[in-house]
Amino acid sequence: MFMKLKQSGGFYSISSPNRNYILSKIKPKLKSKLKPNAFKLNVKEEPDFENLDSFFYNNGDHNASASNANNNYTAYYLPTVGITNLKLCEPNELIFDQATIFFRILDAFKIPYALFAGSSIGLLRNQKTLPFVDDYDIIIFNKHVPLLINAAPVLKKHGFKIIQTVHPDTKQKTNGGCSIYSYALQSHSYYQNFQNDDNDHAGVDANSCVKKSYFLCDVFFSYFDSNGFLRNNASWGTYHGKNIHMKEVVPFQRHTFDGLRLPFFKDVATEVYKCYGNIEQCIIKTHALNVSAVYRSWKTAYAEFERIKHNAKDNTMRFIFCEEGYEEECEKRNTTVRAMNILDNAFNDNSLDVLRDIHKNKIKIIYSFSMEFIIRHAMCIKYYFPTIQIEYFSYSRDNQVVMFLNYVDVLHVYNDAVHDFYNDSRIMYLKKPQIDTITAVTFGTFYEGSKDFSILSECAKYSENIWVGLSSEPSDSFDVRLNSIREHFPLVKKIWKHDKQNDSATAAKMSGANLIITKAAEHAECATDVSTITTNCCIMRVMSRCSNKCSNSKSVHFS
Fold first, then answer.
1. Of 50, 69, 274, 553, which one has the fewest beta carbons inside 10 Å?
2. Domains in the chain and their CATH numbers?
3. pLDDT at position 148, please?
């Protein structure tokens, strides 16, 4: 968090000089800060005393039942955005995972850095990130900035982007530092709940009802002046005007923080006392809202927030499992294997609805061909359905999805080049998925110029290793049809006679196929055959058209 000296004495918090530039790239978000009692409140309204109601869209009714269809403001919890009706942006499981990867990269490149400011307060209080602050602040000395530049390509491969600091007034780039953020924005909209409620919510701004979340770390380029005091190149940071001496800063000391061993100033207590004073009292305020809350003890504020979060998680479980005794759901679920196929980006954006569909359809495995689906929903699915198998079919190399592969069990890739991209030893996986290349199997008669050839074009979209079951009938034209396939489709690696009733199952096992592409009419029979041999094979159903092109019959379907 960037701080600026007030002419009247004391400090007040302002947005990161880079924040406005970043948000112009990935849309506005709410920014929350926690301020100790040394700060003066600069708000028009009187602060709420030990009450967080003004920070929620539901007027404090955190216990609203998820079964009440008329309640648009029910608090739910998603690990990608946090409490859905909270106006602040709090830390969540996705941000923690991305922070873990980010700090591992800094350590791998041996970059000396130290957390400070809000993280230092959190370290002294309970060794955790403040519940109302969603970013990190670190210092890096000027002489170590080249090491950060060296790490830029690896940070980029993980989906992080580096933006040089911009002065909030002049909009000119400065040498005060930079901001590093994850480019994959997470969001959840309340507006969809208003669309059928024209009377009570007419004129509601859809943009103001979208909660956004992403990892952000502000990096302060720093040095020691001639007197040994810590300074920032552009006079930013709480520490800049507080005369924190080098003997209180270095050598950095690692402490357990959010379950990680992370470096802080040598004397954290002195840093916090000089910059913030007494931190027993808790003042919660955000730049985007004209509201604040005051607590005599931070412990009371934390306990209240944890209670609200717990209720939000309970509401989410009730919504997903439709009030059906959700505590015992994991033991009651049907053991029948059902698959959800996500064939393109035409899926539901609302994670709550996706989670409920998974329960309703007793899904055990998800095959996704959509990168956007993995980014938006994979972590939420693993959070509430940890035993579900998620398999992602990728035919491109994309930095945005790398961090979200930690929530994928199997990654199927188009060819060796894509395999090498995701199998790069520099990638810091928290839970590395199994990675293999796609083997696509299909069947047909394949007369010269027939519509059957369109299905081979479909196979070529997903794999360079295609197996074809060529119908043995009519037998007198088999060789002609075989040669025609070889001539027109070099990606077909193997062709065999397809003449057995259970041939599709045998082919799947023999080839190690992870994708079977069939015509719609053959889909049901093929699915039955393969299920007798293996459950780890996606079956894609396509429909032939007069134009010799194939299209998926449904964007999302169950099998």
1. 69
2. 2-6+21-308 (no CATH), 333-437 (3.40.50.2000), 439-558 (3.40.50.620)
3. 96
